[in-house]
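Chain A, query sequence.
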Amino acid sequence: MSGVVRWKGYLDWILSQYARKTVKNELKHLLRVSLYQISFMKKGAYHIVNESVEYAKNEHGPFVANFVNAVLRNFIRETDVVHHRPVPAGIHTIENLQDSIPLEAGRSQISNLSIIYSFPEWLIGRWLKRFGYDETIKLLTNLNKPPEFSIRVNLNKISRDEVMHRLEDKGIGTKKGRFLESALYVERIGPVLKDELFKKGLIHVQDEASQLAGLSIRSEKGGLILDACAGQGTKTEQMKEQFDVQTIIAMDSEIKRLKFIAPTIMRVIGDAACSPFKDGAFDAILLDAPCSSFGIIRKHPEIKWRRAGKDIAAFGDYQFNLLKSLWTKLKPGGHLVYSVCSFEPEETVFVVDRFKKEEMFILENPLPLLFNKNMEYYLSLPHETAMDGFFIARLRKI
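Chain A, predicted structure.
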């Protein structure tokens, strides 16, 4: 249940108020799920308690069941959630933030925000320093919202309006992309994955920010393109659809991911850190590099609990080394698009600035048809763009 993972920090704080002893992980997860249902779902609170207690009794015995019963009923009684359900913290206003989490003497602003918005303290402290209080609140609020899903329409085969019409006829709400004709947002992704449109390759699941990265390659007709960290080939197939390229090669280090890519695309097992291709082989390279993935926390809330502060710098070093390795494979005058689904400086502008000290290149506007022609890179901050967090830079080799 993604909601439980999203609000784990908040739920653990609640649990700490009612459980005065260490709770084993299996039991802690049961209590998290129960507290989440009571706090955030339209379900009878005491019905949830009865189900949880019965499960605990069957799995762990009467002693544990009594403990679960006491924790949940005390929480219900003291917060009066039967009559006044707490509002999910992600949609609190700044004015009523403190109503749900009482301030305690000695607890810092970072600790309070960590509880209220259910994010690690180190990450909140980092963003407060970078963005300031108000912007950090907007960012946290955005990242706690249920995710929006975008699909890419294969405009070579079908129009976006036709896709909208066919999905809405089946009760799936849609809205047009913010920037791209190929982007379409759907209110539910499950039914879309079962639809004939998806099965026939007329639409693909791809966030609009990710589509912008694929669009940035803009290769000349007849050019040879490398998708250096292709994964399952989402951007590879996008580039194949949108550009008249002679050959595009999808490379990834794991064959299980390459199997998802259409057989009409050349697939190569290889590591971008030590590419098997000869120097100067490509007219264009897309490096959608492995990263912290903080830009997609809405879709994958577990990321905020798995990462540590040291991981960001480590990813930055790895991304820099990937750039160095792939740069020699690019023809003079060719271009490399560097993108990550992160908005942290160590993985974005710092990587490009560091690379600039070693190689000669020109930073070109990656999306001149959409944004200011003087723009050297594109940065999507989720609370500003309402898309995934993303960074895109286009480097022209001198």
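Confidence is low (pLDDT under 50) at residues 81-98. The two ends are 50 Å apart (CA to CA).
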